[in-house]
Amino acid sequence: MDFSELETLVARVPHLSVDEILAHPRLPEARRVYIERHLAVYDGDPFLTRLLIESGRFVVNKVALVLHAAQDLSRRETWLTMSRLKQEMAMFGLTSGRQIDHLVARLRAVGFLELVIPDGDRRLRLLSPTEKMLAHDRDWLLIYYKALARLRPQNDYRPALRRDRAFQVAQGRVALRLLPLSAKAFATLPEMMLFFNRAAGHMVITALLHAALSEPDHPHAPVPFAELAERFGVSRTHVRDLLVDAQSAGLVRLHGRGGQLVEILPRLRAGYDRSVATGLSLHDLVYAVTTGRLS
Q1: How confident is the model at residue 294 (pLDDT cuts 50, 70, 90)?
Q2: Which of 126, 152, 188, 264 is positioned for an S-S bond with 116, CB 3.0–4.6 A?
């Protein structure tokens, strides 16, 4: 699809838009579910956080999954090869072949991707997600569909909520068609990209927001840098540098000795909500197309 065709599809598929989600009275509930599910998947698992929670690693992981889901072994041009993966990664601004080679090698080393030799051409190598990678993807989808179920409990999100494998494949095929929308969405979230472009950055700010929202009358999130570093497998210096940069960008204000008390400023709260709403809207759109919910 070209972008005009995508826009036509979006216009005729009933789904929650970003603005509808931001104005939704149950957004605080959906945000809480989104944050708690993220922490349930990644908190206390530094290996998984370091492996995936950074923009380049995350995008390689997700693009590989949707390319595999949409693969038709009777059509060679659809095969998940390194060249095909690099071609699709370019729309996200990730054009370094060496970087993608490194990220794929890492995913292979930890058992998320494997090489497969197709019948009839032993010179070719296809990439294939392992069950370990697919199981994590189902956990990831659960983050979004549990939050969407809070916004629209009348909708039937059961295939996603029960981690159905057939649904996972079907939605992956649809998600491939909508990749240009996802790439465009990345560019609309500058506040969150400051965190997402750093290893574990998204989880650091998610943990701080969780602490702040748990004590709404307390202006500062008292989570020590050492605790964040241990939870997400990075150094205290990395966490401090990230938050100092966020303070320079007007997203947080650091207080107390060593800046250990973090005040989440309104611009970051708004940026986080828009990031949540964007992700939920895209997943609701994918779900609607996957299940045939067309106008």
Answers
A1: very low
A2: 126
